[in-house]
Design goal:
With 342 residues, the chain is α/β, with parallel strands linked by helices. It folds into three domains: 47 residues, 434 Repressor (Amino-terminal Domain); 134 residues, Response regulator (Rossmann fold, 3-Layer(aba) Sandwich), CATH 3.40.50; 131 residues, Response regulator (Rossmann fold, 3-Layer(aba) Sandwich). The protein is built from twelve helices and twelve strands. The strands form two sheets. A six-stranded parallel beta sheet has the order 2-1-3-4-5-11, with helices on both faces. Helix 10 crosses helix 11. The longest helix is centred in the C-terminal third of the chain and has 17 residues. The chain starts with 7 loop residues before the first helix and ends in a 9-residue tail after the last strand.
Length: 342
């Protein structure tokens, strides 16, 4: 026989208090209504004793909410995005929400379909790292009062709130570091789409700083997809033409990983033949040989800031005219992949 679900009434009757009081305590509204700490403690203890599980579906119907949020990123297989997804999943659970995560593969139309899909599933809000060319879709959602926060990528005329890192600053630090170490033939390896905010900012920051040192940079865009194969083919082609760079600035960790594999395959030494810097740090960069110079992004802070803004929109007026753009600093970490042996 199926066991009866424990209700608020069961807790209230066992304690000799009202159902309303139990509801206020379990919804963290006790302080606002003057419920004593001792009473709160008793209610929580009884709920735990009876193994009370809140009925989120019924609560959602009552409040007109699904208690589900959506996260859309370009590639969940990328360590940067998977860390963000894990952080937001934990934060969502902590605040009573479920999370649906989707990948766009940098496909504009697929992203729009995913936004529509999540809205049809009645998600209460979204966090998006967008591949769109314009902010039109997000401005429309903002105007409708739908809670949405963008991360990692920004648009000039964006009306919705956004949390990004200081991409230009980090890329400029990488360029200055390489120039000071005597590298003079840099290659920037970027991922398509070239118009994406992070790609543009990182390319511009690096190229402009290199110009300040009277050094010209070559920029090559790697098609989204099989990065390992594409980078290997590129390095092989440059080797055949005797046109190898003396350093590479990889714009994300997937490209840097592909570079490490290709350079090893062609027996090209790092850093004495080619130096390597990555915009994005991953744990293994610190302990491989040679360790990889990288720009570390504040993933935990980025995730927390985006979720905090979304939570505020979910609880308050999402039609607020306030425009929130939060810029987070990055950290440049010098390691062995750029320090030549003398």
């Amino acid at each position: 026989m199926r066991k009866k679900r424990v209700s608020l009434n069961d807790i209230a009757e066992s304690l000799g208090v009202s159902r309303a009081l139990v509801s206020l305590v379990l919804n963290d509204k006790d302080a606002k209504h003057g419920i004593s700490a001792e009473t709160k403690k008793r209610v929580l203890a009884k709920a735990q004793e009876l193994n009370y599980k809140p009925n989120h579906f019924a609560r959602g119907l009552r409040l007109g909410k699904s208690f589900t949020i959506g996260l859309i990123v370009s590639d969940i297989a990328n360590g940067f995005y998977s860390r963000i997804a894990r952080n937001i999943e934990d934060l969502a659970e902590e605040h009573g929400y479920n999370l649906i995560t989707c990948s766009t593969d940098e496909d504009i139309e697929r992203e729009l379909r995913l936004i529509k899909l999540l809205r049809n599933k009645q998600v209460d809000g979204m966090i998006v790292s967008s591949s769109q060319k314009t902010p039109e879709e997000f401005n429309r959602l903002k105007a409708e009062g739908f809670p949405i926060v963008l991360i990692d990528r920004y648009f000039e005329d964006l009306e919705a709130p956004c949390v990004v890192v200081k991409n230009k600053q980090g890329a400029a630090q990488a360029a200055a570091h390489l120039a000071e170490l005597g590298y003079k033939k840099p290659l920037v390896l970027a991922i398509d789409p070239a118009y994406a905010y992070t790609i543009k900012e990182r390319c511009e920051g690096f190229v402009d700083e290199m110009k300040n040192h009277s050094i010209n940079s070559k920029v090559i865009y790697i098609p989204f997809g099989d990065t390992t194969v594409n980078v290997e083919q590129l390095i092989g082609s440059l080797l055949e033409k005797n046109d190898l760079p003396d350093c590479i600035f990889a714009l994300n960790n997937n490209i840097a990983t592909a570079c490490l594999q290709a350079l090893r395959k062609f027996n090209i030494g790092i850093p004495n033949q080619i130096g390597l810097v990555c915009f994005d740090d991953v744990p293994y960069f610190n302990f491989i040989q040679p360790s990889v110079t990288a720009i570390s992004q504040p993933v935990d802070e980025l995730s927390a800031a985006a979720f905090e803004i979304l939570l505020k929109l979910l609880k308050e007026d999402s039609k607020s005219k306030e425009k929130v753009i939060k810029y987070l600093p990055v950290e440049f970490i010098s390691r062995e992949s750029t320090t030549k042996n003398k």
